[in-house]
Amino acid sequence: MTTLTIDPGEFASFQPQLDRPLDAKVRELQHQGRLHHMIFGAQLTPEVLEKIRAIADIIRAMARQRKSNDRLRQLLPHKRAMLYFTQPSTRTFLSFTAACQILGVTCNEVRDPKSSSEVKRESRMDSIRMFSSYFDVIIMRSEIAKFAECCSYMMNDLERQEMRSVPVINAGSGSDEHPTQALLDMYTILRTFDFDQSDKAKSSRLTVLREKYPDLEPSPNNKTYLFCGDIHRGRTVRSLATVLAQYSGVKLLFASPDHETLRLDSDLRERLTDAGAEVREFNSLDEDYDGQSLISQVDCLYTTRIQREHNTSDDSDELESLDLSPFQLTPERVASMKEFAPIMHPFPRDSIVNELPVEVDADPRAMYFRQARNGMWARAALLVHLFDAVDSLYMARDEVGMR
Ligand code: ASP
């Protein structure tokens, strides 16, 4: 990994917690059967995703009309959120801001650590604890892998000492994890493969397609997912693939340049195969898979940009000279995909490398703008879930007569 890792001095006291197996960590992040901190993709089990999906569907329906929209804003006006984003962000930052606004949550931000007491040598952990004095949730993005994880352990330690403690949401940690991107990606996948949804325009298209593909299950199960681009350093890939591996009959295929900085790493491969997924790797979108063209067999394509910001002085020249054309989603390649297969991308796309040309945008399978908007609903739903406001949401929906 080329990402900055935590400074052993600053975070040393968390080392025993960091060294535990993932499932032990995940258990510590729950609270009375709910997610408490959102740190890893692995926390998003199919059951949790169904719960959050149901909440998100209600929020999006209520947001459509003035009266119910106003009622939504009365849901959490007593809560305050700190958005601590010290790494660039457009969609995650803005969709969390919009999610807070939808629910009446007040939010504040620190985006540049130079504007905080970190310049006076305040430790990062002190900064986080100070945020928790004023706010009710900390939503944080950092280039430092595992920083958000350490913050959640600090909050749990404080809680054990009966001191003030608030939930921590990892909004992207180095090249490590981006669990709320996996949440919105899964929300998009669940909706895409739901043929019974009430969205008339969409369901009629899918109904027609379903007649053509009668074996297609209306769920993420038994599907072939292809991830393309920067597999090793793409934190969205790491989080989403971990979530998908929990579903049955899933094939997870990875297409990336054959370079150790970019291809699937052994840790993730092991995690996915241990979970029961079939995992295969490819060096081009034009390869064959089990005797047929790879791209024609994919049920969902998740393409990503090369994460150049993680290049180092040692590997930059080599990486910049790689031929990326075998991974570009040209209209010709899209033409050979299945008619229903969603094309996803966490964005931003790279306007120079052009891994996802704008010509694809008009294709009905292009899901990325809807995917980004889904981020707002899914993140609002996550806040409702974390703040245990689901019953209040159902009450609000009943009050405005939306049963
Ligand atoms: N926006 C995503 C992230 O923050 C994907 C990317 O930057 O390529 O990881």
Strand percent estimate: 5-15%
Summarize the biggest pleated sheet. 5 strands, parallel
CATH superfamily of the largest domain: Aspartate/ornithine carbamoyltransferase
The poorly predicted ranges are none
* N-end to C-end Cα span: 49 Å
CATH architecture tag of the largest domain: 3-Layer(aba) Sandwich
Radius of gyration, in Å, reads 21 Å
* Sequence of strands across the biggest β-sheet: 9-8-7-12-13
Question: In terms of structural class, how would the helical and strand content be classed?
Answer: alpha/beta
Given the structure, what is the number of helices? 16
Overall residue-averaged pLDDT value: 94
CATH topology tier name of the largest domain? Rossmann fold
Silhouette: globular
Whole-number total of structural domains: 2
Top-tier CATH class of the largest domain: Alpha Beta
Q: Mind explaining what this structure looks like?
A:
The protein is an alpha/beta fold and 403 residues long. β1 and β2 form a beta hairpin. It is 40% helix and 13% strand. The strands form four sheets. The protein has a five-stranded parallel sheet with strand order 9-8-7-12-13, with helices on one face. It has a four-stranded parallel sheet with strand order 4-3-5-6, with helices on both faces. The protein has a two-stranded antiparallel sheet with strand order 1-2. The mean pLDDT is 94. It has two domains: 200 residues, Rossmann fold (3-Layer(aba) Sandwich), CATH 3.40.50; 194 residues, Rossmann fold (3-Layer(aba) Sandwich), CATH 3.40.50. 43% of the residues are buried. The structure holds aspartic acid. The site of aspartic acid has 9 residues, from α11.
